[in-house]
Amino acid sequence: MKKSTLxxxxxxxxxxxxxxxxxxxxxxxxxxxxxxGAATGQPLDISGALQWNPAAISTFDDKIIKFDMGLFFSxxxxxxxxPEFDGEGQPTGNFFSGTTKDDRGVSPMPALAxxxxxxGSKHTFGxxxxxISGFGVTFPESTTNPINMPQNMGGFGAIESDYIxxxxxxxxxxxxxxxxxxxxxPTFNYATLELMPNPTANPSQTAGYPSTDKATALGFGxxxxxxxxxxxxxxxxxxxKTTQTFGDFEFDNTxxxxxxxxxxxxxxxxxxxSLGLGxxxxxxDLALDYRLVDYENTxxxxxxxxxxxxxxxxxxxxxxxxxxxxxxxxxxxxxxxRLGYTYSSNPINDEVTFFNIPATAVIKNAFQVGFxxxxxxxxxxxxxxxxxxxxxxxxxxLLNPMFIQAYPPYGAIPGSEVSYDMTTDMIMLGxxxxxxx
Length: 437
Hints:
Elements (H helix, E strand, L loop, with lengths): L1 H13 L14 H6 L11 H7 L10 E12 L2 E9 L5 E11 L4 E11 L6 E17 L19 E17 L4 E17 L14 E2 L2 E15 L4 E8 L3 E2 L2 E6 L5 E6 L5 E11 L2 E11 L25 E10 L7 E8 L20 E10 L4 E11 L4 E3 L20 E5 L1 E13 L2
């Protein structure tokens, strides 16, 4: 019964959460998304504060509950080119190229947050359930794109992935003074991962790589933050989200010939360092955040390359920088308007592009426009529209462990190329209720 309840909660609050910055959600909720995800030094709503700086919830002096639901559309495309060989294994000088479009469809993206504050109290409490991370692709089998050719014809066949991370946090903030607050948030995580084919498993000489059932893992971590409000418009904040340490995903694999096997794969969530500035003057609120995401010291992402048994050791991602910026205009009564922008560097370098086909959700530039409508002193409705693009395609050679001796370190196939790009769109609505006395 407990397991069924947990699965239901997970489905409701983390279904297909797709990422824009590496595999990390750039923001949480309609208000925070409309500010480009910036909230570390400018907490305009409780969801953004709970996600990016636990100390910042000290600015809220009421009991507030907030729920958001978005519809997320993504359109990854996968390209590949391979050289053609004659019957004696010699290159003909011709090349075979193709494109496959993702047919994943629409994904829901919810967020739930609550804060308990009281005017005059130095203590503020919060709780949240956010889908903070994910990636997923659905590239169908194809005879016109070499990488999606059936496995018995040298390709990978259909390529599908589905990774989702639900994080539940319990937050406490303490006001050291009228201007300075500190905060802490223990975090508990539940993740699922499904791969088809599963490159972390040992391939069979006769049946290639297997497909998997969906595997789950539990993790834990914490977030710490500080927040400063000058009382004269200028604000600043900093936070550190620790590595979210997970147990292994335990995969049950099924090969094309019907044989079965198991393997384990560990994938943690990276540590994130955030710095934020805010400034409020009259009808204008400005926010700017910088984040460093430490993939290079995270299990599952730090490792890369082939194992001795030709399975894939990990994604091989580099650290990334994220810049989030937003502006809010409150000159229209009960209708604040917001614009946001998010920039993210690409964690995937050219030589490991091939290993990252299941995780193509990398958005370089994202633009947001949003607003709120304050129905009453207690109730507000929020909305945001997001559009993101990966910019230049991520590209590199196809890799084969049989070619390592001639083309180290990963066995790049001469004349081959694999690349992917994507755009994302999202519409999100939110509702916030403040319990006034």
